[in-house]
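ugh ok so i messed up the first submission bc i forgot one of the chains. this is the corrected input, ALL of the components this time, i swear. 378 residues overall. if the numbers dont match what u have on ur side tell me asap before i send this to the collaborators (the ones from the other lab, u know who)
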Amino acid sequence: MTPFRKMITVTEQAFVEDGGTAEPAGRTAVALAVMQNPWAGEGPGTGPSPSTGATTPGVAALLAANVMAALGGPVGAWGAKVVIGAGGEVEHGSALVQVLGLEDALREAAGAPAQSPVVAERSAAGATFDIPLRPSAGDPGRSDDPSVDARVADAPRADEVVIGLAASLLTAPPGRHG
Amino acid sequence: MGVGLRKLVTVTEELSSELGLPVQHPVQRVAVAAVVRNPWAGLGYVEDLQSGAQEVATFLGNVLGEALVAHFGEPSRAQAVGKAVIVGVDGELEHGPALIHTPYFADVVRAWLAGTAVIPSTEHRAGPGTCIVVPLGHKASFATRSHYQGMEVRVSDAPRPDELVVVAAAAAGPRPNARVGDRTTDPPLDVASLMKPRRP
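and heres the new structure output, hopefully the right one now
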């Protein structure tokens, strides 16, 4: 069994915003992994054990490496999302975040020790979902950041999860609301 | 006035298993979408779409072709190629083909990827966030059945009404576990014998 079915990255580079020049250019990267939900079909009450995460070693590090490679620069803001297929519980998402070491992986790759937003939702294949972004410790100047959205046409299946890591470049166009 | 490039979106996809089993060859695909101002936005009906196309089409052919090659490292790693355009809702559908069905765009993309065959395409008019499936075909031998495949691309905030989303995509190989043979492996066929009118 491969640890994941599919890996996707989406990189968005902005050049102009509403006629002005986004200087320096904003850049946002999203890395997505489609993998089996290790607890799908077990029903409620069967507590996900941390050891189950050992079935998918390296996924978090791979996601972090992919998002950093796609971003190509220092992280200004970041966030993560777990989308659980219909046969799983939202709780499985929270458990996966822990056992996969998602936060640690990105923190290690990005040198971004700030508190991270990691959220979970249950949804269907092809649904569009948001990944929230929050400023990293390297960027104390901003209080918020736009979220990014993502979509995988054929995932998550009922027994799968989609794990997304997103980051934006430190040099993204600054906010102007003070 | 310039080309009016607002953003570039790059999507990469690597598929490593099907139905729980590893695929024979991991499938790698990449698509690059450029969001540009529609050069004919606000002009009403324009009869001659050729003279206004060259600058934007050449620019896009180079940006997208170079980005695809950069992803694969060298042109030889890209085996299948495709293109697509979404015209923002205030444009004329013909504005999309006026850019991507020109030598300035298609020949330039083909040259970047060292291809020789026709590049399959699709054309659409739609609002921001519309998904488009880019059709891909073998870059040198279009009838190669194993390489027909689609790659989905979406830009959440484009095209605005006066914009175009122009996409080029490439794949490093055939579909996952492609096994439907080819014309050379098809049994001999008498097509006329298969044509049966439903209402005699």
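quick check: Strands of chain A lie at 6-14, 16-17, 20-21, 27-36, 75-84, 118-122, 129-131, 134-135, 148-150, 160-169. that seems consistent at least. The longest strand of chain A covers residues 27-36.
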